[in-house]
Design brief:
Elements (H helix, E strand, L loop, with lengths): L28 H6 L15 E5 L3 H13 L2 E5 L10 E3 L8 E3 L10 H9 L4 E3 L11 E5 L2 E5 L7 H18 L1 H9 L3 H15 L4 H6 L7 H10 L14 H9 L7 E3 L5 H8 L14 H4 L8 E7 L3 E6 L4 E4 L2 E3 L11 E2 L6 H9 L2 E2 L1 E8 L18 E4 L5 E5 L7 E9 H5 L6 H15 L14 E4 L10 E2 L6 H8 L14 E3 L11 H18 L15 H4 L8
Parallel strand pairs: 1-2, 1-12, 6-16, 9-13, 12-21
Antiparallel strand pairs: 3-4, 5-8, 6-7, 9-10, 10-11, 14-20, 15-18, 15-19, 16-17, 17-18
Amino acid sequence: MTSTVPTAVQHTDAQPPITMFGPDFPYAYDDFLAHPAGLGQIPATEHGTEVAVIGGGLSGLITAYELMKMGLKPVVYEADRIGGRLRTVGFEGCDPSLSAEMGAMRFPPSSTALQHYIDLVGLTTTPFPNPLAPGTPSTVVDLKGETHYAETIDDLPQVYRDVMDAWNACLEEGADFSDMNRAMRERDVPRIREIWARLVEKLDNQTFYGFLCDSESFASFRHREIFGQVGFGTGGWDTDFPNSILEILRVVYSEADDHHRGIVEGSQQLPLRLWDREPSKIVHWPLGTSLASLHGGDPKPAVTRLNRTAGNRITVTDASGSIRTYEAAVFTAQSWMLLSKIACDDSLFPIDHWTAIERTHYMESSKLFVPVDRPFWLDKDEETGRDAMSMTLTDRMTRGTYLLDNGPDAPAVICLSYTWCDDSLKWLPLSAHERMEVMLKSLGEIYPKVDIRRHVIGDPVTVSWENEPYFMGAFKANLPGHYRYQRRLFTHFMQDRLPEDKRGIFLAGDDISWTAGWAEGAVQTALNAVWGVMTHFGGATDPGNPGPGDVYDEIAPVELPED
C-alpha cells in the first residue's frame, strides 16, 4: 500500500483499477470514450455553429476538443493561461527540465477517463513519491517533536498501526467499505446504488470528524489526532474534518487517494497538447484542424459579462469589449466567478442553481517549491545509515514536504510545503522568500544535520490558490448538508428537466463534479456537457454507445427530499 494509514481493501497489480465514476453517478466514462462509434453526432445543418466555451482549463479544453470533432466551432475564452489548475511552472535561470506543479500533481489509476486523454496526447506518467509509497525511498513522520523514520509502515510505532486498524474498522462499520469498493470495481450498478442511497440519507448531515467520533474504533482522541495529522494516502486529513463525510467516502471507495502517478512532462502539457492536437477523426473540418488553428493561435480574453438575449441565446462580452452571441455556451471556470468577476443575468440559471453556486465551499491550498542541485536526500547518514532527508509529514508549519528526483546527478525539486485550509491561510501574507525561510527553519528542526539551503540553486515559486483572482480557492469540498446543492450542479447538463428559458448554457468543471479536487471530475463533467450540447443541437449518440444523458434515468444521483 502507498498509504500511511491504508484503507481496508488491499490493491494488487492483478486487479483492474476502479474507474472513478463514483457512487453518485455510476457511469463508465472510460467505456464511452473507448467505443469506436465515438461520442455522438449532430445534424449536418448545425456544422460550423459556434459554441462558447468559457474557461481554458482541462474541462474547457476537453469540451472544446470533443465539440470540434463533432463539427461544431468552439470559441474558447480564457482569462489567464491555458491549463487552469493544471499549472506547471519553471524556475527562472534554471535548467528548463526543472518544473513545479502548482496545482494538480498526482493522479490515481482510478481516473480512467483522464488516462484516456493522457494516452491520447502521448504523455507518460511515473509513480508519485507519496508517504510510504513503493517508489518513495523513505518517509519521516514528525509529531509533537518526536521524529520517526520509516521505509514501510511496519517501521512506525505500534500506535500508527492501531490508527490504521481503527480507520479500517470505522469504514467497514459505518460505510460498508469493502462491499462498496467491490461493487465499484465490478461495476455492479444496482449494488452501488443500493448502498449509496442508504448512506446519503444517513450521512449527508455528518462531518468527517463526527463520523470518526461516532465509531467506537476512534474512541481515543489521540488516535483521531494522529489520523488527522498523518492520515492516509497523501498525508494528514485534519483540514478536511469539517467537510461532509460523503466527500471522503467518494475518495476512499474509488481508491482516489492511493497509487498516485505524476505526469512526467508536467500536467499542464495535457491541456496544451489538446489545444494543438489535430484529431485524425473529425467531422466538417478538414484534417489538420486544431483548436489552436480555429482560434488563430490564442483563445479569446476573459469574459466580463454573460446575458440572455432574444431567441434564448447566450451573449458573451469579453475583456476586449467584443460581444458575440451563441446558441449554446459551456461554463467551465470556477463557479464563484459568476458571482463576482462576471456580470450575469439572473435569468441564466434557475434560482435553485444560483443558490447552489453561492453555497459552494472551496478549500484553500498553498505550495512552495525550490530547485536544488541534486537529490542530496539520498545521501546516507554515516551514524544511522538512513537517508539524509525523507518525504516528511509533520504538525509543523510545512505539514507535507515532497522530494522530486530527476536522477542521481541531475538537478531536482523539493516541494517544501503543501498545505490546505487554515494551514494554507497561515502562509497567505508572506512572500515566497519569507515562506521559504519559515519552512527551512521548520525542516531544520527535523533534520538538524542537513543544510538544505546550500543545495538551493534558484528562487522559490509559490502559489496560494485562495489568492488567485480567477480561482479563489483550490477546489470544491462540500460541507454537511450540501448534497442537494451538488446534485443540482452536476445534473445541470440534463436540460430537458429545466424550463425552456433556462436552457442553452451548461455547467462543467472540477467544482461541478462529485469528485472535486481530482482532474477526473473535470473530465467527466466536460463529457456530460458535450452530451448536453450535442442534444441541444438535435444530435444523438450511437445506439451502441449510450452517453451519460441517455442512461440518466437508470443511474441518476439519489434525490433527497427538500421538505
